[in-house]
Amino acid sequence: MQILPFYLLCDESGSMAGDNVDALNTTLPELHHEISTNPTVADKTRFCLIGFSTEANVLQPLVDLSDIEEVPALAAGGLTSFGNAFRTLLRCIETDVAALKAEGHEVYRPVAFFMSDGIPTDDDWPQAYKELTESRFCPKIIAFGVGDAEESTIAQVANFRAFIQQDSNVSPAAALREFASSLTRSIVRSASSIAADGGSDFTLSVEETVPGFATVSLDKL
């Protein structure tokens, strides 16, 4: 079986306390429902949730979403720190890909959804990011900036899509909800195409616009 691993890295810094974390904790179960109840999608994906601030914790190890009864909730505390998030992500991907291949699966390049509402306080995070992106396990990274996040930083993190909050009235949960919907649609389309022509190529086609968010050009790097 061909598996797409996807990882959610969500900022749990103190500035996320209140509405931001509450909104994401409301949306995570929606993502769980949307993916896990679509057999075509559930069979082809695995999901991991990483919460990060000063430390990074794997709140939900990579698993079939249909096997999760309750998605872990995000908390808020500590400072905004990116380095541990990228190091944890790389370690997880290396372990997860090896395990999936050992089970006889083919593994698509992972997708990582990254959301932060602040400016990183750890100056050495670019080195951790470099190690991640230069690894043969480098995921396609979709980065969202909310709150005080800087456009240039979000562009630096993303290698596939980058978005920055434009409308302060739009909850960050809207980004996660849109991501879940577009990812689901993309997997369904790809699975249908594969079934129709007997091929095996998977194409990820996440939308280039998200309501309430401005698309950040990666060319600005």
Automatic annotation (TrEMBL):
Pfam families linked to this entry: VWA (PF00092)
Source superkingdom: Bacteria
Species annotation: Streptomyces gardneri
PROSITE patterns, per the entry: VWFA (PS50234)
Chain ranges of the VWFA domain: 5-183
Matches recorded under InterPro entries: VWF_A (IPR002035), vWFA_dom_sf (IPR036465)
Name of this chain's protein: VWFA domain-containing protein
